[in-house]
Structures are given as structure tokens and as C-alpha cells.
Amino acid sequence: MKNMNYHVHGTTTQVTVQDAMHDDRIAAILDFCGIPKSRGEIQQYIGIANREHFLKSILKPLIESGQLMMTIPDKPNSKSQK
């Protein structure tokens, strides 16, 4: 079967749509976190049910890039962490 999503430049429509959705989620998270929020609040806000996926693919990269900061950086696993 021929891949109907394949374009000359090697990108697919699906990848482009996923990237746009990811960028929209990032922007929404950054806007939502003007006031510190917990992981659960952020996760619920953007509608991702899988905690591990959310941490690995969204939250940790935002923290590592400096776009989000922990309220208690010395205790990343604190129950009061936002």
C-alpha cells in the first residue's frame, strides 16, 4: 500500500498535526501556570490521563528547558511541590 501521508520533504501530515497540538498544549500549560499549579492540576487541565506519559513527554522537558520551575527545587518529590 502506498503511504498517502508521505510528502516530498519526508514529513507527514500526521507528524505536523501532532507537533502543532503539542505546541498548543505547551502554550496552554505555560499560560495556566502563571500561578503555581500541581502536576495533577496541569495534567487534568490539558486532559492527559496517563501520569507517566505526561511526566516523561511534557512536564520534565519543560522543567529541563527552564520554561517551568518547581516551587521547591530542593525537594522535587514533596507533596507540596507545584
Task: Provide a concise account of the structure shown.
With 82 residues, the protein is an all-alpha fold. It is built from three helices and no strands.
Helix-and-strand structural type: mainly alpha
Through-space gap between termini:
48 Å
Helix content, binned percent: 40-55%
Continuous helix count: 3
Number of strands: 0
Which series of helices and strands comes N to C?
Answer: HHH
Explain what you see:
2% of the residues are buried. The mean pLDDT is 81. The protein has helices spanning 13-32, 39-46, 51-64. It has a domain at 13-64. Helix content is 51%, strand content 0%.
Features of this protein?
mainly alpha, 82 residues, 3 helices
